[in-house]
Amino acid sequence: MSSSLLGWTGRPTLMRAAHQHDDLELNLVVEGGTMLYQFGGMPVAVGQGSVAAFWAAVPHQLVASSATRVHWVHVPFSEFLRWRLPDAVTGRVLSGVPLLSTPSTALATDAANFAQWAEDLASGTAERHRIAILEVEARVRRLALTATGEPIHHYAGGDLALRQVVVMARHIAERFREPLSVADIAAAAQLHPNYAMGQFRKVLRTTVGDYLTRCRLAEARRLLITTDLPIARVASAAGFGSGSRFYTAFTSACGVPPARFRREYTETAGA
Q1: Distance CA 235, CA 194 (A)
Q2: Mean pLDDT in residue range 71-98
Q3: 1 falls within a domain
Q4: Is 153 contained in some domain?
Q5: Which domain holds residue 39?
Q6: Among residues 124, 261, 220, which one has the least CA distance to residue 132?
Q7: Distance (Å, rounded) from C-alpha 37 to C-alpha 1?
């Protein structure tokens, strides 16, 4: 579950499937157009000049992009917890909702700062690493001042298949805690279940069932970190029909059982 403090710049590549990594991810779109993520089941557009910060343990996938140059920074999630940001900010991040600025609230120094952080983090110098992490923390705090409470920017364009899948993914994100069938999800987009499954796999490169499980696991991770609910209650609240199914899915995806996951993060947060 460990991760490293990293920074780099490049052209974004579309993802064949949603993925997860246990850190806080920051994006800055420098040139080109918009990146469209499916983030925890919700479509989120990050436009040129926008900064986004999110908990990357929530399943996310870049499904469309016209951006040509983007800066990324990954911060170990244990470091993010040590920042002890305001409860409203931490709660938003842990609930799976990204902090997202608009170009109008961007800082004039953003592009230079992201480039400097990448250079500092690649330097191998402890003091430059320390300076970079302090500056990244300050940027996230500033981002939270303008992003918290702002609506998520939903995707409304693109080709028909993408629009249909966005509707289904949004339906999953809003209702994954409930018993859901493929027919329920397909009906949200007014599609036949077999056709819906094909469109979903075509766009997101995964099945409806696997995507639903990823959303439930992301919610379970949030509940394990932010509440004292018993493991069985976490499983139920996240939408799993049985404790054994939850235990198997969680251990397979996260590498450790739920109780150990909670214990390790409790120890980290208290450090």
Answers
A1: 29
A2: 82
A3: no
A4: no
A5: 6-147
A6: 124
A7: 23
